[in-house]
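User:
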Amino acid sequence: MTRAEATDMPDDGALKTPDRLRRRASRLLSQLSTRSDRLVNEGLAQADARKWHYAVLASLEDHGPDSQATLSRRTGIYRSDMVGVLNELAERHLVERAPDPDDQRRNIITISAQGRRQLRRLDKVLDELHDELLAPLSPAERDQFVQLLTRLLDYHARTS
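Assistant: Predicted structure:
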């Protein structure tokens, strides 16, 4: 530790973050996003899943069978990566692929009964992880936080 770092440490040994950094929403969101990603990735890995597995299963459950291209747009998974994700899910019998009767060049993906059960398990895992992530907030604050994040994301999605 350098002398400058040592002088920036309070009695409890933690580094002080400059106030101007703690007031920057972009920095706070970035840091929270990093912690959230780590927490979710590690938690889902313990359940033998990845966040992209959850995204595909959730999309299929909410919107029904769909093409790989539409799943890619809905989930934000690059089309080139979607094939690998679907291969993993199909190997685990969580989704089924079938040729599109209207266009034999593409497949229609459907969530299986086993995929629905896995999605319910992953919902529980993510609920617990979100409880951990949002532990300092009351239920009302959690709802408000999610509403505000959704509003920000929707706004920027429309304007970009």
